[in-house]
Amino acid sequence: NAEKRDRTPRQGDSVGSLSLRASAGPVPDLGERVRVCYHVQSHTLPAQLVRLVRTLRASSPTSLIVVSHAEDGPELDLGELAAVPAVIVRRVPGGYGDFSHLDRWLEVVDLLADRGEDYDWLCNLSGQDYPLVPLAQAERELADGGADAYLQLFPAFDGPKWPRSKAVTRYRFGYVRLPIVQPKLPIEQAY
Q1: What are the pLDDT digits (tens) for 2-36?
Q2: Are 175 and 98 spatial neighbours (Cβ–Cβ below 8 Å)?
């Protein structure tokens, strides 16, 4: 039984949805507000991160929030939020140029499954994100959208969203992890 894929643009030219729901299965009635887990990946700006977590909790009190904060980033002081069971803070290895962002996301999926958490959507955010619309509206759009996932897609090199130079730096740039090298000889002080 082949899966039906809906590639109908939902918002402008740069955003689309991809539904992987089998055509034979009914769309579940999600009833009242959906439960969203907001996964926030951060590495800097702790005050801004705390502001985001407070806003998420106040705007979506039934949500889960998992913060994956880079272990080499600044310390976080979540204050009273640290005692809220629906806020989970993990110190994790940071990094770019590999699959570490995806690894952190998959670790959160496993964490939520191990804890037996019930949620309808997992939204990945950066520590620099901030809601531009009321979360109740955004969560209702997730519930009513008829899709299993939303992905941003657009023609990077020839489209209207980015200048060509940005596409070149994003897609033709490469990161390389260099090993940490310890000096073998003592370093003399210069006088």
Answers
A1: 343 344 443 333 333 333 333 333 444 445 668 99
A2: yes
Task: Lowest mean pLDDT of 95-99, 110-114, 154-158, name the range.
Answer: 95-99
Measure the CA–CA gap between 129 and 149, rounded to whole angstroms.
19
* Dihedral sign computed on CA atoms, order 112, 117, 118, 120: negative
Strands 15-18 and 149-152: antiparallel
Whether residue 49 contacts residue 127, with contact meaning beta carbons closer than 8 Å, is answered with yes
Two structure tokens written together for 70: 């880079």
Residue 140's alpha-carbon distances to 39, 121, 177, in angstroms, are 18, 11, 41
What distance in Å separates the CA atoms of residue 122 and residue 101, rounded to the nearest whole number? 14
Encoded tokens for 50:
């705390």
State the greatest distance between any 2 C-alpha atoms of the chain, in Å, as a whole number. Answer: 79
The DSSP H or E segment spanning 27 is none
Unique residue bearing structure tokens 């140029």: 97
* CA quadruple 101, 103, 106, 108: dihedral sign: negative
Q: Which amino acid is located at 142 in the chain?
A: L
Q: Which residue has the tokens 């000096």?
A: 183
Predicted TM-score (pTM) of this structure: 0.71
Tokens of 65: 């929030």
